[in-house]
Amino acid sequence: MTRGTTNPNRLRRMDRWIAATHGGELRRADDPLAIDLGYGAAPWTAVELLGRLRTVAPRTHVIGIEIEPERVVAARPYTREGLAFRHGGFEVPAPGRPMLIRAANVLRQYDEPEVAAVWERLCARLAPAGGGSRGGLLVEGTCDEIGRRHVWVALGPEGPRTVTFATRLGSLRQPSDLAERLPKALIHRNVPGEPVHAFLRDFDRAWAAAAPYASYGARQRWLRAVRDLTADWPVTDSPARWRQGEVTVAWAALAPKG
Fold first, then answer.
1. Which UniProt keywords apply (predicted)?
2. Model confidence, pTM
């Protein structure tokens, strides 16, 4: 069981990214089911996930899953059309194959060697690829208590795809401040010789080089720094997402060594 810290809007950056990048898959699905895995002591994140996903895929329904039975009982008064709560864990007790599993701040209490097995188990529950669809999406990551800084890994049925760094730009001193929010698979790899350490080092250098743009605001400085990063790192998104204080990189470029 997690501590269950659940502040309203804590996962807004992750939710907006999911809606923007996975909304098409949800719209095309016959039965678009999303799972909020480990929603915590209060149901706010599941309620908010339903609202945000329905702006892009109105038929989406959400099931919040918690391993602590008392939290499920406390959440049930918030049940409504399209939103339900169930007791469970990584087995994901839900009908069918979800198009989305969101697991935020869940794996932080596990040991790093356990992460791969959890990822594999959750990915096996996703809707499969086929018929022009890339299949379901697992989004697993960590954020601070009020959602200013967030890093997550996106995985499909085939495994990890990307890593996204997202922040409230006005609160950022330098990009490596996000290191403390790296998901469990990466947080202990932020050491010399590991790709994620090299990426954050290069990001800080690009941020420093972009200092003259700070006079136009933190967003313009971030845009310039990310654009410079693309020369050496496989950034997979576009300026439209960079403007939101995000940057997404191919998992293969940041995956731990060994």
1. Methyltransferase, Transferase
2. 0.96
